[in-house]
Amino acid sequence: MGPAELSSLCRAHHDAGVLAERDRIALELHDTFAQGFAGILLLIQAAEVELATDPAACGRRLASAARTARENLRETRTMVATFAAGDPEPETLPATLGTLVRRFGRERGVTATFSASGGTDLPYEQHVTLLRAAQEALANAGRHSGASRVDVRLSRGDTEVTLEISDDGRGFTADDDRGQGFGLAGMWRRVAQAGGELSVQSAPGAGTTVRLRLPIMGRQ
Ligand SMILES: Nc1ncnc2c1ncn2[C@@H]1O[C@H](COP(=O)(O)OP(=O)(O)O)[C@@H](O)[C@H]1O
Ligand SMILES: [Mg+2]
């Protein structure tokens, strides 16, 4: 291979790297900022409706909105620090998921449970993949399902970790769920990159269960 070919190969690799990185950042933006703002907007809209009729409920909504904004700010700062320094996220995944699920229940007014078993340590890549998947599945349950109950389960084994998000909502026909929205498509992509498996079980009227299984490898 001559120098010109080598340099064009290097450039192609570099371009692919930049694109993958942009993709990753676009996904992170969708999963953190967009969803955080959507949650805050939802609470403010509810507060607007209650302002005239139920000032106490309105006050509670605004307090929830402030709490979500503070959590979002903290997450944004963590993300900025992570991008800047490559630091791992300081919290364990069960702790972060617990907060996320509680916040979801509060914002949506539904029963939301979280359970975790096994160890809490996870390589950074798996941590991010699972966290983003949980955020997207919860956002979908909130936006599309009309569920009254959502259960999130995390189970960490020696060689693999599984995460399950199920709702008792209206469900959907899951045969064309891969390409439609940015959300599920992004989840498929992240899970495939991590060498894992994703299944979306859903049927009209029968709720939805999103299940991820990731192999645990790499540095702990
Ligand atoms: N938990 C769920 N309950 C009902 N429908 C869902 C659920 N999750 C996803 N869907 C359906 O699958 C579609 C694709 O989801 P997604 O890829 O996240 O895109 P988006 O949320 O942007 O529409 C949604 O528009 C919705 O019709
Ligand atoms: Mg979505």
TrEMBL record:
<comment type="function">
    <text>Member of the two-component regulatory system NreB/NreC involved in the control of dissimilatory nitrate/nitrite reduction in response to oxygen. NreB functions as a direct oxygen sensor histidine kinase which is autophosphorylated, in the absence of oxygen, probably at the conserved histidine residue, and transfers its phosphate group probably to a conserved aspartate residue of NreC. NreB/NreC activates the expression of the nitrate (narGHJI) and nitrite (nir) reductase operons, as well as the putative nitrate transporter gene narT.</text>
</comment>
<keyword id="KW-0479">Metal-binding</keyword>
<keyword id="KW-0004">4Fe-4S</keyword>
<dbReference type="InterPro" id="IPR005467">
    <property type="entry name" value="His_kinase_dom"/>
</dbReference>
<keyword id="KW-0408">Iron</keyword>
<dbReference type="GO" id="GO:0046872">
    <property type="term" value="F:metal ion binding"/>
</dbReference>
<dbReference type="GO" id="GO:0005737">
    <property type="term" value="C:cytoplasm"/>
</dbReference>
<dbReference type="Pfam" id="PF07730">
    <property type="entry name" value="HisKA_3"/>
</dbReference>
<dbReference type="InterPro" id="IPR004358">
    <property type="entry name" value="Sig_transdc_His_kin-like_C"/>
</dbReference>
<keyword id="KW-0418">Kinase</keyword>
<keyword id="KW-0808">Transferase</keyword>
<dbReference type="InterPro" id="IPR003594">
    <property type="entry name" value="HATPase_dom"/>
</dbReference>
<dbReference type="InterPro" id="IPR011712">
    <property type="entry name" value="Sig_transdc_His_kin_sub3_dim/P"/>
</dbReference>
<keyword id="KW-0902">Two-component regulatory system</keyword>
<feature type="domain" description="Histidine kinase">
    <location>
        <begin position="130"/>
        <end position="218"/>
    </location>
</feature>
<dbReference type="GO" id="GO:0046983">
    <property type="term" value="F:protein dimerization activity"/>
</dbReference>
<protein>
    <recommendedName>
        <fullName>Oxygen sensor histidine kinase NreB</fullName>
        <ecNumber>2.7.13.3</ecNumber>
    </recommendedName>
</protein>
<dbReference type="GO" id="GO:0051539">
    <property type="term" value="F:4 iron, 4 sulfur cluster binding"/>
</dbReference>
<dbReference type="InterPro" id="IPR036890">
    <property type="entry name" value="HATPase_C_sf"/>
</dbReference>
<dbReference type="Pfam" id="PF02518">
    <property type="entry name" value="HATPase_c"/>
</dbReference>
<dbReference type="GO" id="GO:0016020">
    <property type="term" value="C:membrane"/>
</dbReference>
<dbReference type="InterPro" id="IPR050482">
    <property type="entry name" value="Sensor_HK_TwoCompSys"/>
</dbReference>
<dbReference type="GO" id="GO:0000155">
    <property type="term" value="F:phosphorelay sensor kinase activity"/>
</dbReference>
<keyword id="KW-0963">Cytoplasm</keyword>
<keyword id="KW-0411">Iron-sulfur</keyword>
